[in-house]
């Protein structure tokens, strides 16, 4: 329990901290008067340096504007969404930990309206606190401007706002070719024991309208309102979409009688999107509207003949390679058929031979690279093939047909990793992009099926001439190094995350350039050049995954659990313990943020992996560990840890581990 003395001490500390802060870089912008979503007027004396953010879409803005260094505390959910931020854990989004917030000594707290306990505790006399909520796209743009002013990043905020407005305008322009009677009825859903949808005043309905859909009207307002079966059938949606995290619940709910009797379910038109796009107005709202519109009206948005802008190069930035046969290397941002691509473009001094797993053996190549394809454009490629897009990309970048070879990826080229390894005068460079959030898979275990998200693309270049056999062997060497990196990072299979690490993504590609210089005929693991290829690729894959997905080998435990699709809420839901679920969730959040209990669960993850493979055959030693943890937590030696009965939702070891923690929590609670 908190004390008034501790609260008073915190207030004095924060007041002194604010007075000691240096003047901001924004040249007289402070003190700054800000009106928050609750219509409170705050006077911010200095640019905030220690911010606790409890609102995910504001966290996303701060990160997108390049100011994540000001954050000192985030919720468990944000630590999962933005694992590279590495901030203090301050409880869950729905129930923040006031003591943990206070320990970060914030000079600004950003909260949502329902964070009433936080708002009351950190009153105006203690610490500046902004209440932020968005109900419209215009609200989001306004709040981006505020964040830009607060953290001296107005230019970046303005650029992102402008980009979103352009994307929204582009979609609106294309939709001008769509007759009103052809527009589809669309609804966003949230499922559990009941079905909920956004209320009539929600930004989510504004997004549907912007994408050319017709949203429902329930005569109710709010982020999520219950919908009756009668209302559902009366609206008769033609498309249903939701948050990918809620996919299983939505699919199960819509199989029920009455709910399945609508056009969208009958036609299988149910789609799931990333939660940070569906559940908030993010800095990528224009991108999401374009994606949703393409899903709704594929023929209209995939047809390049219906583009409303001209193909063009927008800007470019240099990439340093230092290879004699390379004339120039750039990352080029360019527009093709209304979509914004980013291409790594390596121009050679003369024709090169290339071995590409995407295009095969190629000769006479004057340029090679890797191209980021946005999802709206990717949907068109999957429906109609990539040949047309490849030709458009080549032409846009200034190459004649057959002169440029590129791979394609959903990973942003801004997250390109360039790694050089050398030994004496021998050099190897790996250029890597990697995304492992959508279709990472364990070869030999997972089912083969094409999925669009996630790809690891690798370009191998050396200061040697690699003949055909060496180029082919380089692909084996690079593949082994890539898989080793994924295993070392504990990247999980997207399909069997509880039991298997991934070895690739299922859509990976490798390109090996012939090069120039002395000939190297062998590129296997026993050769020096093979060693350098492996080291460069391993480091490149590790760096690229960190840049694209925020995943590092030593990432936060909450992220590692999320990688396995393990949520504290779901684990607690499986408990037979007769305790308040929210009490258990809050206690678990605090425990897993402490090194001792975090290490126990981290150890359990490793033991679980080996037990599921059959490398560990007996668990009595682990039962002893669980007893020790329960006794330490509860202060009682006679409590026998319970195993969570998860009906196979949890592996055996993890059911025991979390059962031990909950047994200790409930025993400790009884003691008190």
In brief:
The chain is α/β, with parallel strands linked by helices and 672 residues long. It is built from 24 helices and 22 strands. A hairpin with a 3-residue loop joins β9 (190-191) and β10.
Verbal overview:
This protein is of the alpha/beta class. The protein is built from 24 helices and 22 strands. Strands 14, 15, 16, 17, 18, 19, 20, 21 and 22 form a 9-stranded mixed beta sheet that branches. It has a 5-stranded parallel beta sheet with strand order 5-4-3-6-7. Helix 6 packs antiparallel against helix 7 (154-175), helix 17 (468-488) packs across helix 18 and helix 23 (620-634) packs parallel to helix 24. The longest helix is centred in the first third of the chain and has 22 residues, at 154-175. The chain is globular, with a radius of gyration of 27 Å. The relative contact order is 0.07. Mean pLDDT is 89; it is low at 1-28 and 448-453.
């Amino acid at each position: 329990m908190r004390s008034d003395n501790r609260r008073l001490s915190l207030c004095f500390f924060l007041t002194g901290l604010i007075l000691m802060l240096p003047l901001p870089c924004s040249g007289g912008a402070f003190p700054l008067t800000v009106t928050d979503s609750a219509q409170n007027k705050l006077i911010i004396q200095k640019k905030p340096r220690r911010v606790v953010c409890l609102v995910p879409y504001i966290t996303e803005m701060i990160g997108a504007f390049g100011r994540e260094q000001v954050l000192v505390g985030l919720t468990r959910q944000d630590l999962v969404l933005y694992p590279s931020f590495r901030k203090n854990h301050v409880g869950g989004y729905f129930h923040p930990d006031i003591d943990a917030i206070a320990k970060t000594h914030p000079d600004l707290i950003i909260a949502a309206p329902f964070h009433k306990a936080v708002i009351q505790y950190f009153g105006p006399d203690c610490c500046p606190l902004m209440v932020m909520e968005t109900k419209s796209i215009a609200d989001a743009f306004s709040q981006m401007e505020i964040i830009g002013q607060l953290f001296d990043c107005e230019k970046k905020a303005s650029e992102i706002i402008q980009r979103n407005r352009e994307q929204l305008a582009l979609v609106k322009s294309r939709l001008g070719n769509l007759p009103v009677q052809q527009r589809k009825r669309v609804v966003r859903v949230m499922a559990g024991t009941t079905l909920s949808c956004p209320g009539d005043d929600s930004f989510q309905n504004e997004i549907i309208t912007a994408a050319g859909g017709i949203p429902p009207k329930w005569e109710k307002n709010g982020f999520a309102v219950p919908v009756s079966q009668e209302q559902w059938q009366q609206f008769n949606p033609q498309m249903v979409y939701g948050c990918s995290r809620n996919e299983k619940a939505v699919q199960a709910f819509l199989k029920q009688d009455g709910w399945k009797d609508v056009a969208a379910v009958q036609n299988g038109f149910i789609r799931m999107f990333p939660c940070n796009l569906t559940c908030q107005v993010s800095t990528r709202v224009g991108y999401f509207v374009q994606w949703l519109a393409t899903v709704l009206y594929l023929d209209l948005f995939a047809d390049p003949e219906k583009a409303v802008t001209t193909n063009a190069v927008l800007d470019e930035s240099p990439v340093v390679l230092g290879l004699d046969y390379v004339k120039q290397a750039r990352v080029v941002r360019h527009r093709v058929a209304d979509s914004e691509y980013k291409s790594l473009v390596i121009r050679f001094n003369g024709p090169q031979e290339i071995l590409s797993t995407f295009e095969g053996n190629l000769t006479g190549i004057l340029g090679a690279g890797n191209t980021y394809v946005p999802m709206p454009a990717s949907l068109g490629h999957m429906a109609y093939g990539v040949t047309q897009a490849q030709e458009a990309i080549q032409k846009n970048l200034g190459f004649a047909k057959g002169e440029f070879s590129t791979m394609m990826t959903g990973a942003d080229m801004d997250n390109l990793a360039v790694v050089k390894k050398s030994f004496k005068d021998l050099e190897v460079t790996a250029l890597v992009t990697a995304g492992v959030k959508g279709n990472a898979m364990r070869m030999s275990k997972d089912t083969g099926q094409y999925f669009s998200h996630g790809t690891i693309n690798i370009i191998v270049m050396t200061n040697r001439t690699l003949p055909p056999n060496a180029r082919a062997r380089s692909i084996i060497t690079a593949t082994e190094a890539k898989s080793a990196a994924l295993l070392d990072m504990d990247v999980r299979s997207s399909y069997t995350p509880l039991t298997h690490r991934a070895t690739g993504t299922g859509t990976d590609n490798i390109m090996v350039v012939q090069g120039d210089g002395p000939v190297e005929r062998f590129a296997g693991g026993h050769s020096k050049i093979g060693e350098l290829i492996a080291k460069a690729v391993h480091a490149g894959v590790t760096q690229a995954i960190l840049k694209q997905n925020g995943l590092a080998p030593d990432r936060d435990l909450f992220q590692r659990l999320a990688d396995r699709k393990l949520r504290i809420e779901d684990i607690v839901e499986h408990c037979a313990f007769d305790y308040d679920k929210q009490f258990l969730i809050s206690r678990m959040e605090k425990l897993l943020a402490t090194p001792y209990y975090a290490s126990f669960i981290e150890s359990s993850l490793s033991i679980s992996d080996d037990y599921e493979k059959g490398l560990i055959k007996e668990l009595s030693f682990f039962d002893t560990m669980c007893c020790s943890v329960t006794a330490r937590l509860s202060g009682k030696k006679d409590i026998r840890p319970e195993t969570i009965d998860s009906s196979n939702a949890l592996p055996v070891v993890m059911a025991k581990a979390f059962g031990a923690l909950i047994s200790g929590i409930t025993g400790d609670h009884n003691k008190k």
